[in-house]
Amino acid sequence: MWRVVLDSTVLTSALLNPHGSPARLLDLALQGCLRLFATPRMVAAEGRVLRHAALARWHGLDDHEISLLTKDLPILFGLVPDATTRRSPRSADAELLFCAVRSRADFLVMSRPLTVSMQELGGTNIVTADQLVKLAGRDM
Question: What pTM was estimated for this model as a whole?
Fold first, then answer.
C-alpha cells in the first residue's frame, strides 16, 4: 500500500469536487489502496482554507457544514505528530516535506511544482493527482 501526502490544494479539490483525480485519490484511500498522511497543522489549515471568504462564496457551505466535512479528516489521514519546535511556523511547503519524510511517504501529491532540488526527497516521489491515479490504475 502506497503512503501518500496531499498538498492543501489537492485536498481541497478532493473534498469539493467528487469528479476529479484528487477525489479519486480519496476513494482509493477509502478502499484501502492508499494510506494518506497529514500533520495536525495541515488538517487545521484545511478548515481555515475552506472557511476563506472567496472559497466559501464558491462552495456555499456554512461554518457548520465545513465542520462536518473536516471533522473526519483525522480519521481518514494517519496523523504525523507536529515537530515540537520554538522556531517560527513552517511554510506550507516545509510542512508538506516534513510530513512526507516523517511518514516515509512514497508519494507527495502536489498541485504545483516544487523547486528542482526538491523533486525527490528521501525516496518520496513528487507527482500530480493525475499521475498518481494513472499509476494506481496500472498497479491495481
Answer: 0.87
